[in-house]
Amino acid sequence: MEPHSHKRFPPTRRLSTGEREQTIDRSAPVLPPALEIDENNYFENNAAPEYLGELAQQCEEFVQFHSSNRIVLVTSGGTTVPLENQTVRFIDNFSAGTRGATSAEYYLENGYAVIFLHRQFSLLPYSRHYSHSTNCFLDFMEEKNEQVVVGQQYQQEMLTVLRKYRSAQERNLLLLLPFTTINQYLHTLRTISMILKPIGSRALFYLAAAVSDFFVPPSRIPEHKIQSQAGGNKLIMDLDPVPKFLNRLVEKWAPGAMIISFKLETDANILVSKARQALERYSHQLVIGNLLQTRKHEIVFVEPDSPENWIRLSPEQIEMEVEIESLIIPATIELHSAWIKKAKD
């Protein structure tokens, strides 16, 4: 039998810093905020997910139940960009939803009702302590008298987490709503925003999801799996920028709500300036800036007309495994209280 023949591809190599810089057009203008026509074009040409009506009903009932309470919408995890209509391949990012799931817990502990709009199968409040552990979840269990029980060394911690979870459930404080694709996320975000619109300043948006910057429009997306031979040795995709809808959220979808967005960078020299550019462009209330390398230990609050405010864990707090969200969330709640008071005055 003859050996299988294989195509020969040039060996891969890591780009130098200079080569990487040349692959990115840093002089390209920043996309402007989306206008009403951009909103209409996107949502008319990108069909809503089939389940959106059912999701909207769940959300309406939840908001009605908490009509006199503060409600926070926490978005969490990364969106995907399908490369085929019957999706086999897609573009993704590394976000596991850690910040969003952790933050949701601290909002719940501070009395907020939480709508948790999350990437399906990403981290969830409370179960995050065990679902993405480096240990298999079965390692937390043992067999005793032909029954499965939690290991003695894990019982107290797991009991604490379980009680918090049950309390949130019993008081109907947590609504879990999933998304996977960028289109599902945008349709759902707009729908939830409009449902929250009537409660005005008591609504808080904590937009921690990692949202895709580019997508394949329906007119150009292939129906079936892209064949590996289609492009020879290369696959070249033509992607469009995702419209920047944050200003539509601020101005039309939920005016009166307090809006918090996130800015993730890898270059410390541009983090604050990029956050301020976002505030100027979208006119919302707070950008939380973080560096990829240090995001678990320090963040910066950037507000309009105010100096930046860094929140950092001390070496002792890091050693004690304090979660920085335990400092972030009380600080955002203080700002939200001031926002509500301002709206009443």
Q: What would a concise description of this structure say?
A:
The chain has a single domain, classed as Rossmann fold (3-Layer(aba) Sandwich), CATH 3.40.50.
Indicate the CATH topology. Answer: Rossmann fold
Q: Mind telling me the CATH superfamily name?
A: CoaB-like
SS summary, helix count: 11
Largest sheet: 8 strands, mixed
Which class do the helix and strand fractions yield? alpha/beta
Order of helices and strands: HHHEEEHEHEEHEHEEEHEHEEEHH
CATH class: Alpha Beta
End-to-end separation? 85 Å
Give the number of domains.
1
Oligomer: single chain
Report the helical percentage. 25-40%
CATH architecture: 3-Layer(aba) Sandwich
Sheet with most strands: strand arrangement: 7-4-1-8-11-12-13-14
Shape: globular
Strand content: 15-25%
**Overall mean confidence score, pLDDT:** 90
Spatial extent as radius of gyration? 23 Å
Which residues sit in consecutive blocks of at least 5 with pLDDT less than 50?
1-15, 19-28
What brief labels describe this structure?
11 helices; 18% strand; 345 residues; disordered N terminus; alpha/beta; two-stranded antiparallel ribbon; 14 strands
Outline the structure in words:
- The protein is an alpha/beta fold.
- The chain has one domain: Rossmann fold (3-Layer(aba) Sandwich), CATH 3.40.50.
- It contains 11 helices and 14 strands.
- It has helices at residues 17-23, 36-45, 52-65, 98-109, 128-131, 155-170, 182-196, 246-253, 271-282, 315-319, 325-344, and strands at 71-76, 81-82, 90-91, 113-119, 141-144, 147-150, 174-179, 203-207, 214-215, 240-241, 258-265, 286-291, 298-302, 309-312.
- The radius of gyration is 23 Å and the shape is globular.
- The N and C termini lie far apart (85 Å).
- Residues 1-15 and 19-28 have low confidence and may be disordered.
